[in-house]
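Lecture notes, unit on protein representations.

Consider one protein chain, 358 amino acids long.
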Amino acid sequence: MSLSVDDKYILFLVSVTRPEINSEWDDSTFHYALSNLSSDVLFTRPNHDRVIPYQGDNQFYNAIILDSSTDIDWLRTNGERLIRLCKRYLKCVATCYISEEMPISKLAHAKTELENLDENNIIFRGTIHFQNDEFKYDTNERYALDIELFTMLFVQREKVQIVNRLKKELETLAGQNKLDPKTLHSIREDFLQVVYALLARNNIQAHRLFADDVAEQLFQKSENSVFDFMKWAHLITEKTMETIDEARQSEGVVERAKRFIHENYNRDLSREDVAASVYLTPDYLAKTFKTETGSTIKEYLNEYRIKMAKQMLIESAASISLIAMETGFENISYFSTVFKKLTGETPNAYRTKISSVR
């Protein structure tokens, strides 16, 4: 790079969030196009050595190093031109951030400050911002989500209305310059309060329901923009409705619990493990399971284990201790006790009887 340790520089940061680009772009091609366009606008030639493309969790960046002698009005004019060209040719919304002039040793710190500015920029995108700018939000009156209304919409199963109403609220706040990071965070917490209260009334363990990678990633990004928030809210609404429907159909829940036992009987399973697999509290599942099957979860688990053990005794020459271990029993003594209780004979006696019959 053509830089001198004795000179001062200005950092010009171009940011494009992933939701703001056309879905037809792949990452490397978009990086190449954005870098070339930035180089052409600010240096009049592509592939300039002072344009550094890189990527954050949800953003595409171009860090551009300019001489301190660069006129601020020129920067503003060409920054606005770059934003227009990105919209016209790359079909994306670009936001530009400009640092103070500084020695090269402070550029890395300036990069971090501009990235933080970008991270907190929810509604002022597609414009130019300077390093010491503060986003001016009209937050004299704090906003609170109408919890009673959204609870009623969930109870009435108005999935589309929930998502549309939430989107309209956010867009209205953004249009009134009232959607700052703190307000968006508050709305997310209020929405979660509605969902968690509803799940609790249906004996569903919310922390397990939303523990998968997709839900976690969307949750992490949900405060970046209105678009990311709505993707997260849509997923939460869908999963909440679906899980409540399944929980209310007790036969479906019990069948899924049985399937989990069938697939994991050789593990050290507890009642809590089975309940977690269907997102219900252990007490609620135990009651439902007993009502539907006439057996406790533990009894059903042992019955299935003995069923599989009988099959192994017939079809293999494995030792009793190995069969006990492979069917999930912690020791041969307990295995023999349960086997005799359910079949009326010991594992050895059962194997001998089957062999003699054959």
